[in-house]
Amino acid sequence: MSNSDVFRPDLNVRPEPLDYPFNNHESLEVSARYKCLRDSPTLSRVRLPRGDPAWLVIDYDLARIVLNDPRFSSAAIPGRSVPRQSNFPADPNLLTLNDQDHTRLRGLITKNFTKKRIERLRPQVRAHARQLIAGMKDSGPPADLVENYAIPLTLHVICEILGVPRPDRARLRLWSEAQFSTNSLAAEETELRSRQLNDYLVGLVAARRAAPSDDLLTDLINAREDDDRLSEAELLVVTRELLFAGYETTSNQIANFTNFLTDRPDIWRSLRDEPQHLEATIEELLRFVPVMAGAGSMPRYALVDVVLGTTQIAAGDVVLVSIGASNRDGQEFPAPDVFRVDRDRNRHLAFGHGRHHCLGIALARLQLQEALSALALSFPNLSVGEIHWKNQVMRGPRTMMVNW
């Protein structure tokens, strides 16, 4: 689609900023406020919890522009604090690097984190899912799906990939959970856990340098591109990124998607009876059920004056892309608020778009496919009981009791 197609003359701007984020973290719904904005202006001014102003994009075509256009950058601007959708600062990650460093690092990583390499893990993921389900059956219902399935499955997989020793994995979980906390932890505790995680990863990298192993971390240490290598600081950023993408996000999605599907028994049964539709079902879940309470993407800065739609964005302005709302744009997705497995073209933005798309796409898809398929095969009558939700930027149950 050409740029002329997305510059729509009917887009206006609300004069008063709206408090953001909109979504309730104790729900899987997309806030109705997005729909109200779509019916009038598409580009709105919002105010984040700490008072930072931003432009909000909920239009699919405009979202793709912001996510991939070099005139917008997620790298922090010197002298300015990064706008936050929660009360605590985010740790450095690939998205906060400047474009040159980001491109360089992605090139070094993707050579070793390929779809082919991930696909080789499928038998191991399937076997571990079955093992966890067997344990749930032995203990009998009810069971906490988060504690007994979603977390141990995804944590096991990413730790196996990175080469994290089994005795260290419980601590790793404790530290990593703090990264997505909003007010469930004090700021001092969040910062302490972040430092502890960094210290641990420094030691893990040093240990792997001294004793290389057959794992991704060793491959990243040895990765080269024209004599270029990852620095120590870059290795830490990359390892944290892979850890969160491979564990925290996907474990939330397993629980969220199970909760969503068990309310729709016909779709749940189809995972067992019509496995040929499994991949399409996962893609529609990714489109329909947003995992983030906020925008779902890092803030972008306009590097130059830009006209987005018909809205003038000044250089230095912050732009947020709501992934969940953009995935409900009727211009791209017919009947956007209807869950449809048979969509002809499901170009959702759940993994981002363009040069900043998620590195863990293949791993996330594989884990979701195997996790949900195994559950549906083993528990055709699974039902969800009491849920206690996390109070985090990333939406998901802290505990979710299930019966079968």
Structure, described:
GO terms for molecular function: heme binding; iron ion binding; monooxygenase activity; oxidoreductase activity, acting on paired donors, with incorporation or reduction of molecular oxygen. InterPro entries: Cyt_P450, Cyt_P450_B, Cyt_P450_CS, Cyt_P450_sf. The protein is globular. Residues 1-14 have low confidence and may be disordered. The strands form 3 sheets. It has a 6-stranded mixed beta sheet with strand order 1-2-3-9-6-4, covered by helices on one side. It has a 3-stranded antiparallel beta sheet with strand order 5-11-10. The protein has a two-stranded antiparallel sheet with strand order 7-8. A hairpin with a 5-residue loop joins strand 2 and strand 3 (53-57). It has helices at residues 3-6, 32-39, 60-68, 99-110, 115-119, 122-139, 145-162, 169-177, 187-210, 216-222, 232-262, 265-273, 278-288, 323-326, 361-378; strands spanning 18-19, 43-47, 53-57, 72-73, 143-144, 300-302, 306-308, 311-313, 318-321, 383-389, 397-403. The chain has 404 residues and is α+β, with helices and mostly antiparallel strands. It has one domain (3-403): Orthogonal Bundle (Cytochrome p450). The relative contact order is 0.18. The chain is built from 15 helices and 11 strands.
